[in-house]
What we know:
Blueprint: H1 6-13, H2 17-20, E1 36-40, H3 43-60, E2 65-68, H4 78-83, H5 89-93, E3 95-98, H6 103-112, H7 116-119, E4 126-129, H8 132-136, H9 151-175, E5 184-189, H10 192-195, H11 204-215, E6 218-224, H12 228-232, E7 237-244, H13 246-253, E8 266-271, E9 277-281
Amino acid sequence: MVMTDxxxxxxxxxxxxxxxxxxxxxxxLPPEACSTVLLVGERSTSRSVLLLAAVTAASQMGMRVxxxxxxxxxxxxxxxxxxxxxxxxxxxKKIKFSYPRTVEELLQQVASLHESPNTSPIPPxxxxxxxxxxxxxxxxxxxxxxxxxxxxxxxxxxxxLLCDTAxxxxxxxxxxxxxxxxxxxxxxxxxxxxxxxxxGGPSATDRILNVLDRYFKIRCTxxxxxSYEAAAAGLQEIWNIxxxxxxxxxxxxxxxxxxxxxxxxxxxxxxxxxxLMEFKLI
Length: 282
């Protein structure tokens, strides 16, 4: 099977009924353009999308997933249970959860994936990191509040290691003629704007995002729609999803001047009162 962008596959799989009935002239992004994706937005919604991506990759695409997060996952969120009500235990076994507490532990565990071809017959083809900002911030109770003093260099080091590890695992998967190649990385990051703590000047998260954008080819931004129309629709939440970054521009530049780039750059996420999630192409 030819692999497509994971998030685009998720959006299409859980598309609204009206979009499913019409033919969409939006071909998938090439694998090289979407090997690294940064999901920027509110924490709980980002985690739901990350978990949905992990479950979709494992259950529908047969991929092995490595999921790093600081917060223990006791059970799947209601939104995920609504979207995938009949998830099989075999699919969940393809997802390995790891809970590093610090950025040092995360760096060590990501680096150890270079040894996975020696310890596992099939290495992971999707690496997910939940809440990068949690790893880059000083621990609770530390005398220094906010981010580490070297947060930008730390963000660069971690991002470079994730990209290097994905490139290494891609080579391994290709050597084994695996249909799961290439290995991809999806990470989430919550900016100060998403927490409502944004100040007037450039924030620490702005500086970190500038660093992350150098390594992650596509940024997927979740922006909540707080308009009256959204509330009047009877939905619990509506989120606008914007795809941007060098991966999008590289794909667009390959088109002829007279052609419009067929790239899905904007979607909407509808979260219903019962927890069901649907996506719609804009």
